Amino acid sequence: WAPLAPWEQVRVVSTSARHSAVVTSLGGVYTCGDGGDGALGHGDLASHAHLKLVTYFSDSSTSSGQPQGQAGEGQPGCELVGVSCGADLFGSHTACLDSRGRVYTFGLGSACGRGNRRPHPVPGRVVIEHAPSGNEADGLTPPDPEEGDRVAQVCAGGGFCLALTRSGLLWAWGNWMGGRLGLGPVPSKEDTSYMHSGSKRKRLLPLLLRPRRVRKGLESCGPLASVSCGDAHCAAVTQRGQVLVWGQNESGQLGLGPSRRSGRLENHFYPTPLPPFKGFGDHPALFGGGGGSLSGLSGLSGGGLAKAAALAARAGASAQVAVHVACGGAHTLAIDARGE
After folding, report:
1. Cα separation of 186 and 255, whole Å?
2. Whole-structure pTM over 0.85, yes or no?
């Protein structure tokens, strides 16, 4: 790929089984690999053996007469700060985050959260809004990228994505199978087509094409600090140092062991606490009885691990406090406050 400017450095790197992406200190994103689903963001389905700049985010020739996502339209002045690549058997996709908390996706349509299943070879913004339905209707205001609760992290998995806001709220979209979205079992509806008239056959709806907030399983654990996606499972660290896991578990990737009821490894459809990591809780020695959080300590940069270790040592619970978690394709790793 073309040499970077002397003052430009690579800041973020992400890979999937099919493609790779990097974000530089100037806020640009470069991609390479399999472009069959438009996951490289270059406006076509071509593959590239070398990293190539995605011009959508730096193109100053914006075409205001075209709908969002068509070739020729750009986002001048958009500074990217994060990127995540995802892929599964059905295709690949990429999710980007800019400095204003706005999320952009391109690639496999069902994983892009843009309301349809067609491939998206040009980046487009994901609109995160709350649409009350069933028991989820609570009247909460969605995160506003311009003010209030912005998205702080975006993570791509196998056919799906997660977005985490600064206040610790979690949103998911894409492939629902196996519980990877944390929203429960795959929903279904009665098939009313002429071929099944008079019957009660139900049809699964495995794809969530718009973001939806994850609520169940997060009520009592407090805000999240970071999330990570595997092929079909997820893990998160709360701002109190707990670890939550959900999704497919056929390889034991959730770390929860066999079900007591069946004796087998079972999928978990909602965020579930991982027992070894109990977190700080409301330890009075740490928070003066008023509670507190690990917010900002979930990463290993900026002395976060050292700060977490010092707090955990005062509580005598360093082995129970997680500061980082990462998912592979079908495995998960966590680091506690002692660095183990």
Report:
1. 22
2. no
